[in-house]
User: Fold ATP-binding protein from Streptomyces cremeus.
Amino acid sequence: MHPNSVSQARTVLRRALAQLGCDGEVISDAVLAASELVANATEHAGGRTS
Assistant:
């Protein structure tokens, strides 16, 4: 995973939700949830096996 991928995903999500008319609290909650999901996936995902 590229180091900027998580940041870019948060930015895209934030912009998309804003365009849909979501309020700031909803956007903040969604961005936090997405960040947690990515962090957990990164931490617990199995690596490549040879």
DSSP finds two helices and no strands in the chain. Helices lie at 5-19, 24-44. Residues 5-42 form one domain.
